[in-house]
Each structure stands twice: as structure tokens, then as C-alpha cells.
């Protein structure tokens, strides 16, 4: 459990010497508790205290890294139950399955398809970042062959799904350098699987039915020297899965219960329904899954799922923003239109996408509204005539728009008169919705 | 093992919509939502007696700009509210959300009488409870909603929306005609509470209010709705009576504005089949927001409704 400032204070020298740049030991303790300072900044703290602090300040949920080099993801190390309490830190891995029962050509084609599950939203790339190879054949050689194809084709983190230690071993021979997640260890095979994980320095999935059995299993696996563990509770039904995910998170965060202090994996197969696995995965991403594995592979299935992850893992303390200033779309000449918008990523990229789509080269002046949308900013007086006129001066828009015409969002039409007066520019009220921009630009600025 | 059961102190209010003959209305069925004493489907620590109810949105006039998958589902009936209503019930609507867009001054400016006529036609056509949603223009709503409220008197509908700056007329109508009310706030918990206080100060029961915290769609602000709803719900369960109301989400309306849900395959060839993409986008938004606690989900596409229902069935099983 996170230490309070007072807990930390008790372990400090209490001399208030100030060398840590805090006025008092108590002030320093408070900053450490809020993660604004590190305990190392106090030169006088005893080794014994440091050890106590170290153990207690270890993250309640283990950080697990899967993959290597550029194809690496990190999950776990979460600190809160609700994102509004702080933020969720490490986006869940999203894995698509590949069965080793398929032909080599089919395996290759599926791997290619996984690679193309990458989309751009609000200026960020969102992509499937894991492939889960399933040892459905039960055959170690077939498994290794399938893993080899996927590893070569797909630049993603790998999950090796087999409870047969021989299969895992064969597969590791072709991909150990990729540091795959071994999936996994259960009550009967854990010795062999943990030994493999230790030897090859790989993370491992502990799979048992229910949290009690999992508690037992993770202790055995850690005793065998493996630190990075992912839990799979094998619950039946969505409600039981949600219960296990919720309870494990609470045990880790509320009770500092180490044996369940790991990220969790859930698995959703379609069984003929192409929508339902996506809906379940969405619910699990919201409620605590560290990895979701699914056989869904169509772009229309993964796009919403990747977007759920992007939304849930957005830091609520700071909205996504873009740089204020003049952004050029295409190669705008002196007759190109000048549009004005806010620096909220969602607003900016929605507008940018439509301007691009119009094929009319343009300038967009982005006003710093502290990452708020057009109306939110307007209502909070961050996007009214004063701020817009100031931004026009600051970013010297006359240099890019000698025609002295400026297009404002339709939603703030009420500002047009004042802005015209204040700036001396001709103020044109654009469409209300960004989707109206292409036809507007083509009709009026297509020249 | 130690218990990690959370001791919530308060239940979400239970609300029943619609009135059968015995209750003085003409509905064949009523719908009850709310009553939970924990977060969604955490049955191990509390009750979650009523699954979220699905309302299908329909308009009093032909919509414009609805993308192809929605047109496929409704275009042959959307000029006729009674037919549209029947179609929506066939698609599995437990309630209908009759949206009076056509009364908006910029969108047809239909009269209060015309609006009341539409509501009567819909009541006659189907037996499910109704949600009736104004156009959002304050002045016009204050003309239209009292007429509509009166036309549906005794049917125990859910009327919206009451906002901080415009709540008195609607509240008075709902009181007079025996309806429940939706209090709307712009993704702001304090305003949500304030609206509930204002409504209840007019003598309206807190138990008869539904909160509309504003809905942001998946990929279009859902992160805001999600956390506002979750914050509101945890506060409600922890004893804040002003936040213990059931919550309504306009998932359909918001989702279908998003480019990923409506963009054509011609414009976005790598995004795949729009007829699946759009409905799944809507259903995924519903499935995620449900985890933040939404009791009434207003949806549009039949396939989205169908798959969200099968998710709920699995949760309830
Ligand atoms: C999410 C949200 C918030 C979030 C903030 C999100 C953010 N980062 O901005 C939070 C919860 C923090 C918030 C707070 C507030 N909000 Co607010 N919020 C919303 C909400 C629900 C969605 C806004 C949004 O994200 N829209 C999406 C973006 C992409 O839209 P957009 O920026 O307008 O851009 C579109 C168009 O304008 C156009 N466009 C954009 N630029 C340009 C440029 C040109 C040239 C053209 C042609 C077109 C164009 O393209 C885009 C796509 O169509 C709206 C209601 C709603 N459903 O719209 C209320 C809303 C904007 N909020 C409102 C209010 C009042 C507030 C608060 C003042 C409330 C309060 N008292 O706390 C605060 C202010 C916060 C502050 N002090 O900064 C009101 C504004 C009312 C008004 N008409 O003035 C709204 C309309 C809600 C309402 N109905 O009352 N809000
Ligand atoms: S350096 Fe250490 S002893 Fe000195 S004030 Fe800071 S915390 Fe206290």
C-alpha cells in the first residue's frame, strides 16, 4: 500500500537540516509520498530506514515487460481503482490469436493482417501490440514453426499459449530473444514452466481457477525465482471474470497483498459472434485487464477496442493538446484560407482531418485554450475575441494570410462582430461541424 | 483470504417508467431501473437488481444526414413516427426515446400541437414506456413540453431535459401530469447536484429524477463521460442523495457522429465494412459506459441493440 507522508516522516532523521531542499523533514516526507521527491535526496536517512521504505514503496502491482527492443510493452504498476483518482498508467496489451493448426500460408496471412491493425486517432498511432500464438495442435514442432512465422512477420510482443513445457521450449528456441510471455504455468506444470521462464528471463502467465488457487500458484512461481507474472483466473462467464479482475486489483491496492499484485490477462473468443468478444474486451479494459486476448481480427472489430483503450488510459489530469501556433496543411500559398481553432487534440485533429480531406491547402491558427474544445473554451473565456486577437498577433498571421480574412468555427459565430472590430480583419463564420469544412472550402477557396 | 468487499452505504434510487391500465395509463409493460447497491454487476458485494434498460431513439421528423446503416434500418419508416415506433419495438426497444427535433426553430419549427400529436400517435402505436426529449431550444421547449406532457398525462413518461438555466417549466409540467424528469448537466458533478436541488426545491421527489450527465462518444470524449459517471456513482453509493439517481446515456446519438462509426468504405478503405463498423462502435461505447454505471441507454442501430443485449444477458446469467 502507498505510504503516507507521516509513515515516511517517522523514518527520517527529523533534524530539519534542509539539505534535501525541503524546509523540514515533514515537508520532504510529504513530497516523497506524492512522488514529487525521491528518498535518495536526503543524505542522512539510515540504510535500515531506506530498506523499510524500499519494500513498502515497491509498486503494489508488479510492472511486467513483455517483448524486447522496439516490440515491447509494459503493463501493471497501476496505482488506483478509478481513473479519476489519478490516472491509469500502463495501457493494456491487446493481443490477436494465431492458431498453429492453420497452414503456414494461413499463419503468414494472419500475421500480415495483425501488422495492419494500426490506426491514427487524435495524432496518435493506436495499434494491436501483441500476437498470441496458440498451440492448438499440441505438437511442439508445429508450434515452433508457427511462432517463427509470426515472429518474423509481426513486429509485436508475443504470447506463447501452451501448457506443454516441451512446446514452450521448442518455441523459445526460435524466439527467446523476443522475450515472449509464456502462457502458461498451472498447478501441474509450473515447475517446468517456471524453470524455462527463469532460464530465458521471460515473463510468465499463472493460470488457476479462482483467486485462492492463483495466490498459491504465484507464490510457488516466485519461489522458483520468477518475478514478472501475469494472472489468469480462468473464470467462467463475464460476471465472474469482472469479479476476479476487481477483487485482484483491490487485494493489490487496498491490502498490499503481494501474491495477487500482478496484471491480469483475459481471453475472449468469438464463437461465431463477431461483436460480443469486442464488447466483453471493452468492459475488461475499463475494469482492470492488463492484457486482452481475442480472435477478433477485422479492422472494424479492433478499431473500437483500441479506441476504448486510448480513452480509458488518457490522463484525466491533462487533456491531450497540440502546439499552439500556425499549422500548415499541404503547401498553402498567400491566397490560402486561414482557419482558427483550439489546441484540444480532439478538436484540432477533427478539423485537420477535414481540411486535409478538402484538398485545399490551408493554414490553421491554433489558439492555446489549455486543451479545451471550442464551446468549453468559449464558455470559460479562453476562446473569445481577446484571446483570438492576441494569438493572431503573437503568431503573426498576416505573414501567411495577406488577404486578411479569417474563418472562425460556426459555434462561436457570436464573436464575429467583435473580432472584426478588434482585429480589423474580415471575419468569416465557418460551418458548425467540421464535417462541413470540405464543401465550404472547395466552394469558397478552391480557386 | 481477507475480504475486499466495499461497504457502500446508499442504494441508487429505483425508478419505474410507464403506466399500465391498472396504473391509469395505457402501457402494456413498465420498465424499472436502478436499485443497485454496488458498482455494475459486482454481485459479490451487493445487489444489482435491474439490468440497464435499452431505449431506441426516434424522431418526430425525418432525420437528415443519418449514415447508411441507420438508413437501412429506418429509412422506409422514418417519415411516419407511428411506424418508426413499431419498428423500434420490433428491434427490441424496451422503451422509446421520442426526440422532438422537428420543433427546433432551425429544424422545422413545428408547433406544440404537432409535437403532441406525434406523441399521441406513438403512444397509440406501441405499448412500451416513453422518454420524450425536447429540442434543446429553451424558449421553444417551454412552449412545446407542457403541451406534450399534458398529451401523455398518466402515462408516467420520462421527460427531458431540465437544465440549470431552464428547469421550472418542465418540472411544473412533470409534477402536474405525473411524469419523471431528466436533469441535464454539462459533464460536471456539481452542476448535476445543483440541477437536482433546484428541481427538488419545487417539490419534486428526488426518487423521480434521472441524471443526464452529458454523453461523450467512444473516441469523442468518452473518457470525460466515463469518469464523471463513475465519480457521480461512487459518491451516490457513498451517501450523497443528490447523486443517487439512475443515469441515462445518449450513446446512439453521440456515437453516430464519430467519423470511425460513419465514414464510408470508399473514403476509408482500410477501416472495413461500415455496416458492421458503425453498429459495433455504438455497442462498444454502450458496453464501456455501462462499467461507469448507466441505467438507461439510448441507442439507434438494431445490431448494436442486439449485441449489447446479449452482453447484458451474459452479465445477468
Ligand atoms: C467534454 C466537455 C467538457 C470537458 C472538457 C473537454 C475539453 N477538453 O474541452 C469538461 C468536463 C472539462 C468541460 C468543462 C466545462 N464545460 Co463543457 N462540454 C463538454 C462537451 C460534452 C463536449 C465538448 C467536446 O469535446 N466536443 C468535441 C469537440 C471536437 O468539439 P469542438 O471543439 O466544438 O469542435 C467541433 C466544431 O466546433 C468544429 N470546429 C472546431 N474548430 C473549428 C474551426 C473552424 C474554422 C470550423 C469551421 C469548425 C471548427 O469541428 C469540431 C467537430 O465538429 C460539451 C457538450 C457537447 N456535447 O458538445 C460541453 C460544453 C461545451 N461545455 C459547456 C460548459 C458550460 C462547460 C463549463 C464552463 C462548465 C462548468 N461550469 O464547469 C466547463 C469549463 C471548463 C473550464 N473552466 O475550462 C457548455 C458550453 C455552453 C455554451 N454554449 O457556452 C457545453 C456546450 C455543454 C452544455 N450544453 O451546456 N466540458
Ligand atoms: S535532508 Fe533529510 S534530514 Fe535533512 S531536512 Fe531533508 S529529510 Fe530531513
Describe this structure in words.
The complex is a heterodimer of chains A (447) and B (317). By secondary structure, chain A is α/β, with parallel strands linked by helices. Chain A folds into 3 domains: 5-57, Electron transport complex subunit B, putative Fe-S cluster (3-methyladenine DNA Glycosylase II, Chain A, domain 3, Orthogonal Bundle), CATH 1.10.15; 64-312, Dihydropteroate synthase-like (TIM Barrel); 325-445, Rossmann fold (3-Layer(aba) Sandwich), CATH 3.40.50.11600. Chain A has 16 helices and 17 strands. In chain A, helix 10 (276-286) runs parallel beside helix 11 (299-312) and helix 12 (345-358) packs across helix 16. The N and C termini of chain A lie far apart (64 Å). With 317 residues, chain B is an alpha/beta fold. In chain B, 39% of the residues lie in helices and 14% in strands. Chain B is globular. The chains are: A alpha/beta (447), B alpha/beta (317). The interface between A and B is large, with 51 and 48 residues. The structure holds cobalamin and iron/sulfur cluster. Cobalamin sits between chains A (319, 339-342, 344, 346-347, 350-351, 371-376, 378-380, 407-411, 430-431, 433-434, 437) and B (186-188, 214, 216, 221, 224).
Note the topology.
The complex is a heterodimer of chains A (447) and B (317).
Chain A: H1 5-10, H2 25-33, H3 47-57, E1 63-68, E2 71-76, E3 93-99, H4 104-115, E4 118-121, E5 124-127, E6 130-134, H5 140-153, E7 157-161, H6 165-175, E8 181-185, H7 190-200, E9 204-207, H8 211-223, E10 229-232, H9 238-255, E11 264-268, H10 276-286, E12 289-294, H11 299-312, E13 325-329, E14 338-342, H12 345-358, E15 362-367, H13 374-379, H14 385-394, E16 405-408, H15 416-423, E17 426-429, H16 437-445
Parallel strand pairs in A: 3-6, 3-12, 6-7, 7-8, 8-9, 9-10, 11-12, 14-15, 16-17
Antiparallel strand pairs in A: 1-2, 4-5, 13-15
Helix pairs in contact in A: 4-5, 5-6, 6-7, 10-11, 12-16, 14-15
Chain B: E1 14-17, E2 31-34, E3 53-59, H1 68-74, H2 81-90, E4 95-99, H3 112-125, E5 130-133, H4 138-151, E6 158-162, H5 168-177, E7 180-184, H6 189-201, E8 209-212, H7 222-237, E9 248-249, H8 251-255, H9 259-262, H10 274-290, E10 296-299, H11 302-316
The complex binds cobalamin (B12) and iron/sulfur cluster.
Cobalamin sits between chains A (319, 339-342, 344, 346-347, 350-351, 371-376, 378-380, 407-411, 430-431, 433-434, 437) and B (186-188, 214, 216, 221, 224).
